[in-house]
């Protein structure tokens, strides 16, 4: 008699059984890098309504479509960029020094900004990056007034999308001598980070803290406030009330170099509804045009950027996709060699394969991007990495401009929410964009 | 988030100056709380039976005299009234029946406070404008607590402004953010305590009101609050003869106290106290976490 | 500038007339005359003397608000009054003295220099410190030296609960009672080196007599059991 098909237990799929196994066997929770990997509503669920009989496109390549972007318009020296695609905070420590250098070079070549991370400012990054945003985090590792004065903007980090309410994390294998010295930690220990700032709690105190940073920098540069997407509507309003010149909202898909798996997959809301709520908050506060909005968390393509701008963002910030341009999850690193080096065995040592790796926390990055190991670090050539990243950012900017032109816009910032339609009811509700083929926005 | 202020005068001769003294305290707290402001003033009534009711209407041109006439006629007695745009203070011969009468005859009017001593003025808008509009500088009384609000999760509206009141001669203001306000609200509503807003501060106020109605004195009520309330809070409570200050055990939200022979003043930041007369010689301290500080007027 | 009388070698800044901006701009000057600065009527304002870049001598007559003397480099800043939250936060070098009491987060994340509170300090004194030396003549509140990474803190009086929670390599010396120790903090025996260190810091702090007896101090340091995550650490807290 044929056996009945074996029934899968959808409440306990393989990943859940592996999780239970690890917890039972080791008593440890899972720590990993990157962002939420499960399927979530994204910008892919929106489409752009390009030219038709009633709207006329601009000629690609011939008719100008500007991508210039200004952030922090209220400051004496706003941040002026050639593209609305910026690079998010990723620490030296999480990333190798060569990785930070490659990012800086690419950003300078393209005319955009990079951001320090939870480890302070390295000379490689300040020298290679023409426009550098300096983060102030709960840990305050390496934070100092001289670096503040060298910065082009300050980003006060309340939280990040991968773990709103969680602090930074760097495991001992990545706390090298240089990293340890910058962070005032013993070499090789597992770094524990604060989740709240040491000297302020709440938006009323944040207003005074922002005033302090303005005093320190003589009021010259814009001050950003970054929040992980949780209670976005109130957070963005409070950031404005506290004095932010730019608000940065990082959705659930946003990455990290190391944090608990439970945080990554189960805390915060996706970038799509976070963006819509952030725009609503700025509109309610009547500061559109005065306070700019940067959205991040799983931004991958020029189409994502176009849709984000259409929904009301002034700029986007990239993290994970930048790492991938530098070689993350590739079977051969961006080492600049004529013949590609196959590093698949090093992925296998981590228990994974190229395309599925999320072990930034291990310090054994096979492509030299998120490692402090002196040998592995050499696998990323800063010049080659910069070339690839510059290419990627350029392609994204061109895609953005192409889509904007196809909508008849001579300025990418003229994209508006009425240029969008939604492919799913979920996306329609989250983005407050009508379901394609209808005028229906759920809830309205 | 917010700014809180409190002033209790130790000498009766100073009572006519209560408003003048508290206005500069408020003005300093306007940046901490730009969205709305309010104050509760406590002053003894001229006669033992009198009851004060602070009322609020949504319209600036509400016909308070007409309401006064109707009420006087139904209660069979004269009623004193002071009106200021959308606020009015009614002084009545007794308290019984006042809430029910208002609910039946003036449902659009909100009762801000009831008691022998308490008067409440609160509204949305910039604190500096509110101080002027309601003439805070002219207030007289033994003690006052006040608040400037930076709205966090719930809306900005006059109803959401602090102080929140409960029962008779009881009110509080709050700086901080409760992390379990909704479960508190559900528990209290199930116990028959009605809520007006979704604001977390109202949850704290109704919680204490409930504990007091269960027979706790204020100290025991606050003791229960340390267990049941979660989050960050500095609370300043005004009752007929007392001003009470408490900070949660984690104590991240600030408070400074200045004591002299003439007054006890409380504020979120010292600079709010810096203009008070005699501040140079005041005893200045910060309240310890989870400790109850109470002063008698 | 209103409120600033130009006179050498002293500048007088009246903060009731001028705001903190004029004082801070003066302290950010890297070249030119090197005055000592008298600051009057701070009236609890925030951000007084933030970000000094040279060895100015600054005397502040009155109480200050949040973040006074923050991110100080080289300067000698004396506050004749009380200080609000975050006194000398992120100090890099130099010396800050408060003759009254200080609020929360004294010398938060400080990297170097010396911060002295002659009175009491509130909670989280020395939080996240990264190399600064702190001396408190009175007592401190709870969570003293929370997540303190490097540097030395000397408390002549008592310490509140959870002292040294999550301590790294900073060392704390307490002359009075300790209400409770934090996670991973432990008392260690005092050696001659410790006593010398305490005596040295008390001397540098110039506390008013009578000076505390060095023999009474206890040494609190990290047990270093949280330096590496392992299953044994994961406990259910009752």
Structure notes:
The complex is a heterotrimer of chains A (444), B (297) and C (238). Chain A is of the alpha/beta class. Chain A has helices at residues 14-26, 97-110, 123-128, 145-150, 177-183, 203-216, 232-241, 261-266, 271-284, 302-311, 320-325, 344-349, 374-377, 382-406, 425-431; strands at residues 31-32, 46-48, 69-71, 79-81, 85-87, 114-115, 132-136, 153-157, 169-170, 191-192, 223-228, 246-250, 259-260, 292-296, 315-318, 420-422. In chain A, the strands form 5 sheets. In chain A, strands 5-15-14-12-11-8-7-6 form an 8-stranded parallel β-sheet. Chain A has a two-stranded antiparallel sheet with strand order 1-13. In chain A, β6 (114-115), α3 and β7 (132-136) form a beta-alpha-beta unit. In chain A, α2 (97-110) packs parallel to α14, α7 packs across α9 and α9 (271-284) packs parallel to α15 (425-431). The model of chain A has no long low-confidence stretch (mean pLDDT 96). Chain B is an alpha+beta fold and 297 residues long. In chain B, the strands form 3 sheets. Chain B has a 7-stranded antiparallel β-sheet with strand order 7-2-8-1-14-13-15, covered by helices on one side. Chain B has a 5-stranded antiparallel β-sheet with strand order 9-10-11-12-16, covered by helices on one side. Chain B has a 4-stranded antiparallel β-sheet with strand order 4-5-3-6, with helices on one face. Chain C contains 2 helices and 12 strands; from the N terminus they run ββαβββββββββαβ. In chain C, α1 links the parallel β2 and β3. Chain C has helices at 20-27, 192-205; strands spanning 4-5, 10-14, 36-40, 57-61, 76-79, 95-98, 114-117, 130-136, 150-155, 171-174, 185-188, 218-222. Mean pLDDT of chain C is 93; it is low at 1-7. Chain C has a 12-stranded mixed β-sheet with strand order 1-2-3-4-5-6-7-8-9-10-12-11, covered by helices on one side. By secondary structure, chain C is mainly beta. The relative contact order of chain C is 0.09. Classes of the chains: A alpha/beta (444), B alpha+beta (297), C mainly beta (238). Chains in contact: A-B, A-C, B-C. The interface between A and C is large, with 32 and 46 residues.
């Amino acid at each position: 008699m044929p056996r009945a098909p074996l029934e899968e237990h959808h409440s306990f799929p393989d990943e859940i059984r592996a999780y239970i196994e690890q917890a039972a066997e080791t008593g440890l929770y899972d720590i990993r890098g990157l962002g939420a990997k499960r399927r979530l509503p994204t910008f892919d669920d929106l489409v752009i309504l390009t030219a038709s009989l009633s709207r006329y496109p601009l000629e690609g390549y011939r008719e100008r479509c500007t991508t210039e972007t200004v952030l922090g318009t209220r400051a004496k020296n706003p941040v002026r960029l050639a593209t609305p695609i910026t690079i998010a905070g990723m620490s030296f420590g999480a990333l190798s020094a060569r990785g930070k250098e490659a990012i800086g070079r690419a950003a300078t070549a393209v005319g955009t900004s990079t951001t320090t991370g939870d480890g302070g400012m390295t000379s490689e990054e300040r020298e290679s990056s023409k426009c550098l945003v300096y983060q102030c985090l709960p840990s305050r590792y390496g934070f100092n007034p001289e670096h503040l004065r060298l910065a082009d903007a300050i980003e006060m980090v309340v939280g990040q999308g991968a773990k709103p309410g969680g602090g930074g994390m760097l495991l001992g294998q990545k706390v090298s001598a240089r990293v340890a010295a910058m962070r005032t930690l013993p070499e090789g220990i597992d770094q524990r980070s604060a989740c709240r700032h040491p000297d302020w709690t709440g938006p009323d105190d944040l207003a005074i803290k922002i005033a302090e940073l303005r005093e320190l920098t003589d009021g010259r540069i814009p001050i950003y406030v970054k929040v992980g997407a949780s209670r976005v509507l109130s957070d963005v309003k409070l950031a404005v009330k506290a004095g932010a010149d730019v608000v940065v909202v990082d959705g659930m898909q946003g990455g990290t170099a190391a944090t608990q798996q439970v945080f990554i997959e189960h805390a915060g809301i996706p970038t799509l509804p976070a963006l819509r709520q952030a725009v609503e908050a700025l509109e309610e506060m009547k500061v559109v045009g005065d306070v700019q909005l940067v959205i991040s968390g799983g931004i991958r393509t020029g189409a994502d950027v176009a849709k984000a701008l259409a929904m009301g963002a002034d700029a986007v910030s990239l993290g994970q996709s930048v790492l991938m341009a530098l070689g993350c999850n590739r079977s051969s690193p961006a080492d600049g060699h004529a013949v590609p080096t196959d590093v698949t065995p090093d992925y296998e040592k981590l228990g994974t394969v190229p395309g599925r790796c999320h072990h930034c926390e291990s310090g054994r990055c096979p492509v030299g991007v998120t490692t402090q190991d002196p040998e592995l670090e050499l696998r990323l050539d800063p010049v080659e990495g910069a070339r690839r990243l510059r290419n990627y950012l350029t392609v994204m900017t061109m895609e953005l401009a192409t889509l904007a032109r196809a909508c008849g816009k001579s300025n990418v910032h003229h994209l508006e929410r009425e240029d969008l339609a939604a492919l799913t009811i979920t996306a329609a509700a989250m983005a407050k964009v009508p379901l394609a083929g209808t005028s229906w926005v759920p809830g309205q | 988030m917010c700014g809180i202020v409190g002033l209790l005068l130790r000498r009766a001769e100073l009572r006519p100056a209560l408003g003048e003294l508290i206005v500069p305290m408020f003005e300093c707290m306007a940046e901490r709380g730009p969205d709305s402001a309010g104050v509760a003033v406590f002053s003894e009534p001229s006669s033992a039976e009198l009851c004060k009711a602070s009322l609020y209407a949504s319209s600036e041109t509400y016909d308070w005299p007409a309401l006064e006439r109707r009420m006087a006629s139904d209660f069979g007695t004269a009623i004193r009234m002071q009106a200021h745009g959308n606020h009015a203070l009614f002084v009545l011969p007794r308290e019984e029946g006042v809430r029910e009468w208002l609910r039946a005859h003036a449902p659009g009017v909100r009762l801000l406070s009831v008691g022998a001593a308490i008067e409440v003025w609160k509204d949305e808008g910039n604190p500096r404008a509110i101080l002027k509009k309601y003439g805070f500088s002219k207030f007289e009384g033994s003690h006052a607590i006040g608040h400037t609000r930076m709205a966090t999760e719930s809306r900005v509206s006059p109803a959401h402004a602090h102080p929140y009141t409960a029962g008779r001669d009881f009110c509080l203001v709050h700086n901080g953010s409760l992390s379990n306000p909704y479960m508190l609200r559900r528990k209290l509503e199930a116990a028959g305590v009605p809520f007006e807003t979704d604001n977390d501060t109202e949850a704290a106020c109704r919680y204490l009101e409930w504990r007091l109605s269960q027979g706790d004195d204020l100290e025991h009520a606050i003791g229960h609050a340390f267990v049941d309330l979660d989050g960050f809070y500095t609370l300043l409570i005004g009752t007929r003869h007392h001003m009470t200050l408490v900070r949660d055990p984690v104590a991240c939200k600030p408070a400074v106290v200045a004591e002299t022979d003439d007054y006890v003043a409380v504020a979120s930041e010292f600079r709010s106290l810096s203009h008070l007369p005699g501040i140079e010689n005041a005893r200045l301290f910060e309240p310890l976490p989870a400790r109850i500080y109470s002063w008698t007027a | 500038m209103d409120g600033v009388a130009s006179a050498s070698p002293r500048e007088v800044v009246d903060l009731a007339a001028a705001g903190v901006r004029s004082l801070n701009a003066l302290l950010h000057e890297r070249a030119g005359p090197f005055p000592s600065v008298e600051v009057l009527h701070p009236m609890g304002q925030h951000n007084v003397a933030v970000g000094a870049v040279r060895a100015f001598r600054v005397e502040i007559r009155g109480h200050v608000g949040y973040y006074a003397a923050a991110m100080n480099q080289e300067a000698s800043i004396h506050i004749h009054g009380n200080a609000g939250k975050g006194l000398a936060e992120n100090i890099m070098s130099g010396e800050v003295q408060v003759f009254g009491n200080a609020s929360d987060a004294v010398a938060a994340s400080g990297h170097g220099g010396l911060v002295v509170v002659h009175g009491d300090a509130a909670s989280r004194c020395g939080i996240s410190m990264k190399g600064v030396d702190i001396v408190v003549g009175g007592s401190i509140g709870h969570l003293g030296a929370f997540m303190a990474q490097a540097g030395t803190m000397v408390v002549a009086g008592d310490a509140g609960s959870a002292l040294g929670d999550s301590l790294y390599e900073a060392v704390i010396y307490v002359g009075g009672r300790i209400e409770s120790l934090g996670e991973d903090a432990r008392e260690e025996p005092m050696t001659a080196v410790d006593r010398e260190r305490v005596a040295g810091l008390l001397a540098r702090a110039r506390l008013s007599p009578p000076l505390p007896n060095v023999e009474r101090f206890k040494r609190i340091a990290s047990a270093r059991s949280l330096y590496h995550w392992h299953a044994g650490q994961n406990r259910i807290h009752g």
